[in-house]
Write a structure and sequence with these properties.
The complex is a heterodimer of chains A (296) and B (310).
Chain A lengths: L6 H12 L1 H27 L8 H27 L2 H8 L2 H5 L5 H22 L1 H4 L10 H28 L3 H40 L22 H12 L4 H8 L6 H5 L1 H25 L2
Chain B lengths: L1 E10 L2 E11 L4 E5 L6 H8 L7 E6 L2 E2 L4 H7 E4 L11 H11 L4 H14 L15 H12 L6 E5 L7 H16 L3 E6 L2 H5 L4 E6 L2 E6 L1 H9 L4 E7 L1 H10 L3 E6 L3 E6 L3 H13 L3 E7 L4 H15 L1
Parallel strand pairs in B: 3-8, 3-9, 6-7, 7-8
Antiparallel strand pairs in B: 1-2, 1-4, 4-5, 9-10, 11-13, 11-14, 12-13
Helix pairs in contact in B: 3-4, 4-5
The chains are: A mainly alpha (296), B alpha/beta (310).
Chain lengths: 296, 310
């Protein structure tokens, strides 16, 4: 059976690989990662003459690279995807596409795939450098795969927001600004919002508590299910994944506990739940983008 | 082939289409003429599925363009007045990309695209980057692109705009060729003479309404009925002027050296009657007929009259 590749994706891929930029970016990125890996090994093994080796510090290399790649996704994907449809509009190529038999969904998916393919390529090309942690153990192959899945889904999630704004705005600049704004809101905004709400709740509880003569135990209420808002925060997904891979989710639990705590089963499966939530949201954003493209 | 019924489209308070009606037969090369802002592009965008009409219907080969936009897209090839191209893409790749949208890939796509590029005289530009082509070449490439799925109806919005005379000529020849191949083509322009010589019929749109439609000759003869009647005399000019002044259908008389130009409100029968009466009175007439109009003045006349009505 012949597999038909999305024509928009195929075309975009052809254009992007034609430029020398992609090769240079992959080279620079992997050179940087390799340097980090080599330095980590040098300071842990060679520099101290293979005495007092801190095996756990090698795991820091894995964590560092994971965070670096996560940050890269947050910074690069909005710039690529916000240009997706708005760029076609600015180039005056969108109208022709819309008069063909290509469905708006196909255009949206093709643009999203091509926009995030570079970043996914970067993430996958870092796989061998990340795999150096196998030398000392602690992180399993399946953990690396889990990170790769996380990177792909985060790219799709952020990318779908970028594509959505790209269809709503005629120009690339406002689409890019709004996408970065959305990324800030998702990663920092959700935490800040919950923190403010939590402080207000505690303040209100304390006022009542002390006004009534501080009788009984001091036990301020938590935010309960409102904390589930953090499921849309990819930074929290990363934190839950890494802490679980480290064998202890204490840090992650501490963060959630600061808002009053949440059910244990949700905490333990936070990665899977949040990934599912983000995928569903991505689907909704892409559907909305296609709808916007169809609306005249 | 194409049937537009009572098409309305408003942008806020501005009425772009005001009950437009139009019928175009299979194989026709139809010139859609009108001043800027008359509603040509709006009509074409609605036909192509880029815009939704407020009300009315468009049937292309019996298929409702509003209800079944996907089916319509298989039948039409659209070329907008302004379009862009992708950077870093060669002309052949550009063509193959659009072919792949219609499921034509591999060798079949390569051969088809090669044929189409030959049709638009771009066979030697296969490996040239699209953004490096001249405007005329880009227009021709876009025309070839619109033919990639062998559409029955070609909708071309000002295909010759911004082209130099040579490129215009080449474009005209290609369109004539396509028409002879049996394609139904609609071309818009705000310049009537440009379309008149190649179109089998034309329609003039003004303020979103079709003012007049027919073959160029038909429209010319209809419109020239309001032109002054020119009578050139061999003899008896003074007597003829006297007789003309007595005729109630004569509105005004401009006397020239050997002829008169009269504003005459009658049709062809009345004209024959007038000629007969002058001849019967022994006046020597060597020329009798309406002043011939040209397309430019015809277009100005039609659009001005309609504007005055509004």
């Amino acid at each position: 059976m012949k597999v038909r590749i999305n024509p928009v994706y195929k075309k975009e891929l052809k254009i992007s690989v034609r430029s020398i930029r992609l090769s240079l970016v992959i080279f620079a990125y992997n050179a940087l990662l390799a340097m980090i890996g080599l330095l980590a090994f040098y300071f842990n093994f060679d520099a101290n003459g293979y005495r007092n080796i801190s095996y756990s510090s090698v795991l820091v290399v894995y964590t560092m690279i994971a965070i670096l790649e996560f940050a890269l996704i947050l910074f690069v994907v909005p710039a690529f995807t916000a240009n997706a449809i708005a760029g076609e509009r600015e180039r005056q190529t969108l109208e022709i596409l819309l008069t063909t038999t290509l469905k708006p969904e196909q255009i949206i998916i093709g643009k999203l795939m091509s926009s995030i393919s570079t970043i996914i390529l970067l993430v996958f090309s870092s796989f061998p450098v990340m795999a150096i942690v196998f030398a000392v153990g602690g992180v399993r192959f399946v953990d690396l795969l889990q990170f790769m899945v996380f990177a792909c889904i985060t790219s799709v999630f952020i990318g779908s927001i970028g594509v959505l704004f790209s269809t709503f705005f005629k120009k690339t600049v406002p689409a890019t600004v709004f996408t970065y704004g959305a990324v800030v809101i998702l990663t920092l905004g959700t935490l800040a919002t919950l923190l403010i709400i939590y402080l207000l709740v505690v303040q209100s509880y304390e006022n009542n508590y002390y006004n009534s003569g501080a009788v009984g135990n001091y036990n301020p209420p938590g935010l309960g299910n409102l904390t589930l808002l953090l499921l849309v925060n990819p930074a929290m997904t990363l934190l839950s994944m890494i802490t679980k891979q480290y064998g202890s989710m204490d840090i992650f639990k501490e963060v959630l506990d600061s808002f009053g705590g949440i059910h244990e089963s949700i905490v333990n499966n936070w990665y899977y739940i949040s990934v599912a939530v983000q995928l569903v949201l991505s689907g909704i954003f892409l559907k909305l983008a296609a709808w916007k493209l169809r609306t005249k | 082939m194409l049937e537009i019924r009572d098409l309305y489209k408003r942008y806020g308070k501005f009425t772009a289409l005001d009950g437009l009606n139009l019928e175009i037969g299979k194989g026709e090369l139809f010139g859609f003429v009108g001043p800027n802002g008359a509603g040509k592009t709006t009509t074409m965008r609605i036909m192509s599925g880029l815009l939704r009409a407020d009300s009315g219907s468009i049937l292309i080969d019996g298929i409702d363009a509003v209800a079944q936009p996907m089916k319509i897209k298989e039948k039409i090839g659209y070329m907008p007045d302004f379009f862009g191209v992708y950077d870093n893409l060669k002309a052949m790749e550009y063509m193959e990309f659009y072919a792949s949208i219609y499921g034509i890939e591999g060798l079949e796509a390569r051969e088809l695209c090669r044929d189409l590029m030959k049709l638009v005289n771009l066979e030697d530009k296969e490996d040239a980057y699209v953004d490096g082509l001249s405007r005329g070449m880009k227009q021709r490439l876009c025309l070839a692109r619109s033919l990639v799925h062998n559409p029955e109806l070609l909708i071309l919005d000002e295909p010759a705009s911004g082209l130099d005379p040579r490129a215009r000529f080449e474009m005209k020849e290609i369109l004539k060729n396509l028409s002879s191949m049996g394609k139904t083509i609609i071309i818009s322009s705000h310049i009537l003479p440009e379309l008149a010589e190649m179109c089998s019929s034309i329609g003039i749109i003004e303020h979103g309404r079709m003012v007049i439609k027919g073959t160029v000759d038909d429209i010319m003869s209809r419109m020239s009925a309001s032109n002054p009647l020119i009578i050139r005399f061999a003899s008896g000019k003074q007597e003829a002027v006297q007789r003309l002044k007595e005729n109630p259908r004569v509105q005004n008389i401009a006397i020239q050296e050997d002829s008169v130009a009269i504003g005459f409100s009658g049709g062809q029968e009345e004209e024959a009657e007038l000629l007969g009466s002058l001849v019967s009175q022994g006046i020597g007439i060597c020329h009798f007929g309406r002043e011939e109009g040209n397309l430019e003045s015809l277009f100005m006349q039609i659009t001005k009259e309609d504007g005055n009505e509004g």
